[in-house]
Amino acid sequence: MAVGDVSMPQMHAVKGVKIGSAEAYVRYQNRRDLVIFEFAEGSNVAGVFTQNAFCAAPVHISKAHLKITNPRYLVINTGNANAGTGKTGLVNAEKTCVQLAELAGVTATEVLPFSTGVIGEQLPVERLINGLKPALDSLSENAWLDAATGIMTTDTTPKGASEQFVLDGITYTMTGISKGAGMIRPNMATMLGYVATDVPIRRELVQQLLFETVNLSFNRITVDGDTSTNDSCIFAATGQAGGIEISSDTDPRYSIVFDVLTRVMKRLAQLIIRDGEGATKFITIAVEGGENTQECCDIAYSIAHSPLVKTAIFASDPNWGRILAAIGYAGVINLDVEKIQVWLDDVQICKDGGAAEDYTEEAGARVMSQTEMTIRVDLGRGDAKDTVYTCDLSYDYVKINADYRS
Q1: Which end of the chain, N or C, is less surrounded by CB atoms within 10 Å?
Q2: Which residues are catalytic?
């Protein structure tokens, strides 16, 4: 059961984007498991991908195709990651692109493939290919919810975000979906995320916007510390709503688009944490007073990845010594523990490196029993700050991952 508000908003259509889906039986029965995005000709598309050295075959192909051309189509399957599949996996990913290109009347390099699911099993490519035409035949501007559902694996809920905004009298749209619940600790990428806008934006700026906003959102979440082999995020700007192209980041419209995209990305990223495998609590870890953002992130992730911290929070046990231990082993050089302050929401648990005099176990337990809480750390050594989002570690996380291939 997801934590807090995970409701889907009204998913506004993006001019120049059509989506289709089908039941291809890649792994699942009686559910959509194949999704196709079609972008209008002239769209500018950017991507970021996993840094995992064992990255999946479709990641290799997508990165190569993006270097050659602006893609017109994305094809996504769930149930099988096509990772750890060697040369055969690459052949199958390329074959998927070729077959979709023939059906759509484009070149194979204008198709980007994506896969998610079980690692180490060969993709049932013929089943996937058989689903391409039905998915193309169902293309619609209003199929974002179907797409969000069609890319799910262990997710318990579809994930979407959408905003409309006005620039120079023109109403534009920013809409996106994501998937992910486990094997979540992105590294310069996301799990699977697809966001599009109908604002006209120069291609180099599309990549810049994606890179910058991913670092504020998907690269600030973790469920279990495992970076997936398949993490990918795509941002497309179709330009189909009209207006003058944004060609410089000094254009006043750039900052507005940046802010909207950041909100959409953060919502999609936080939905993944709220739906983390077995999650019962949503945790914000805010670290301030650092010399630089890197050490703030190092400490935040050290806390977020600690199984002792995460299990204590699951049990509503204010065993705050585990938080101090995680701060201490984060590897920050010359950390003066006597300057460190720590709070659970408004309850200070650590003052100047020791127990706060007015702290009580009852106050700590009150915060720990909430479904949402903030762990705030002040390092007392500078002005830098950063925030990471995570969840607790429950019995169900173990059960879900023990039974995942069953």
Answers
A1: C
A2: 190
